[in-house]
Specification:
Elements lengths: L5 E3 L6 E13 L6 E8 L5 E4 L13 E4 L20 E6 L2 E7 L5 E5 L6 E6 L6 E5 L3 H12 L13 E2 L7 H13 L6 E4 L20 H10 L3 E6 L3 E2 L5 H8 L13 E4 L2 E4 L6 H9 L2 H5 L4 E4 L20 H9 L1
Parallel strand pairs: 11-12, 12-13, 13-17
Antiparallel strand pairs: 1-2, 2-3, 3-9, 4-6, 5-8, 6-7, 7-10, 8-9, 14-16, 15-16
């Protein structure tokens, strides 16, 4: 059907956003199913901002992007895709602003007049063509209304706004203590020290390397007495090791992602062979959250969630045939 939608500013009648062609679907020969498409008129002098983690110019006009979380170590200018996926952008035209939030969980794409300078498009590999148009007319009005739709970030603790010291990597304990002493003796403000993956036992999450950190509770307490919070790294790659309690629990409860052939998704990350929790399953999220208890009890004040694209060495992220075991969760709750 030849159905077009336009959005205009009620005060001035200025058309801010209008379909260039009807919203539609096209067959997806690569993955099966259908692409869903929306194509808008790219207004003269209209500028675009947003999408989060992009490495080029602030103004996105004349560029195209793919939203697909990917580990992109040492990325360069205009490299895409990168680590984060935020399917929200703002358009500014004639001094007025609007926003588009593309509410679709599939791999998505945005073209801001690159292929055709008179058209702005966004589409996805599947799912529904569901998007929200958010009118301003001012830029901050758009942002506030977007926040009311998706939720706001909780207020961080005051110490989180201070200077934090982090690198790959501080170990053993003596190096951490020397680092802390160096800040204080030079009267350089610092509120937190980060411990990278080397604090772990063989890069196994939720463990301590007792050779490097023989008494982490004491060390964290001493750092706190000197005004430092301790933040530690956590990765979602769980080492395949039958003697590792986190792996055993995840395997026994079917908490890990699988491939299309029903084998567990495996990839190499820092510990070597790893499997990955299926965070789309609320039961898995609850289990994973409980794993932090030991670190919190030890005095750890914050967590650095890394490699959660999820990252896989040599591939950037998961292959396309990884599926989430949501069906198992549904059956478990209704049988």
């Amino acid at each position: 059907a030849n159905f077009h939608i336009s959005f205009a500013d009620s005060a001035t009648g200025l058309v801010m956003n209008a379909d260039s062609m009807p919203m539609h679907w096209e067959e997806n020969f690569d993955f099966g199913g259908y692409y869903v498409y929306a194509t808008k008129t790219c207004q003269p002098q209209e500028n675009f901002f947003g999408l989060g983690d992009k490495s080029g110019n602030f103004n996105l006009r004349g560029k195209s992007f793919q939203n697909w979380n990917t580990d992109a170590y040492s990325y360069g200018w205009d490299q895409d895709p990168l680590y984060r996926t935020i399917p929200f952008y703002t358009g500014i035209y004639e001094g007025k602003a609007y926003g588009i939030f593309f509410d679709n969980t599939f791999r998505s794409y945005f073209d801001f007049g690159k292929e055709d300078h008179e058209k702005t498009s966004f589409w996805a590999d599947g799912g529904e063509l569901q998007f929200y148009y958010i009118h301003g007319p001012h830029f901050m009005d758009v942002i506030k209304r977007y926040q009311s739709l998706t939720g706001t970030h909780p207020m961080p603790p005051k110490w989180a706004l201070g200077y934090h010291q982090c690198r790959w990597s501080y170990y053993p304990e003596q190096k951490v203590k020397d680092l802390a002493e160096g800040f204080r003796s030079r009267q350089i403000p610092c509120d937190a020290i980060y411990l990278d993956i080397d604090y772990m036992d063989g890069y196994r999450c939720f463990t301590w390397n007792k050779k490097y950190f023989p008494d982490p509770v004491r060390m964290i307490r001493e750092l706190a007495a000197d005004g430092f919070k301790t933040v530690v790294m956590i990765d979602p790659g769980i080492k395949v090791d039958e003697n590792y309690w986190v792996f055993k629990e995840g395997k026994e409860n079917n908490y890990f992602c699988r491939r299309s052939d029903d084998y567990f998704m495996e990839g190499h990350v820092w510990p070597g062979r790893c499997q990955f929790p299926d965070f789309t399953n609320p039961v898995v999220r609850e289990w994973w959250g409980g794993l932090y208890e030991g670190l919190v009890d030890a005095g750890v004040a914050g967590f650095w969630n890394d490699m959660n694209e999820p990252a896989v060495f040599g591939a950037g992220t998961f292959p396309n045939d990884v599926r989430h075991n949501y069906e198992f969760f549904v059956r478990s709750n209704f049988i």
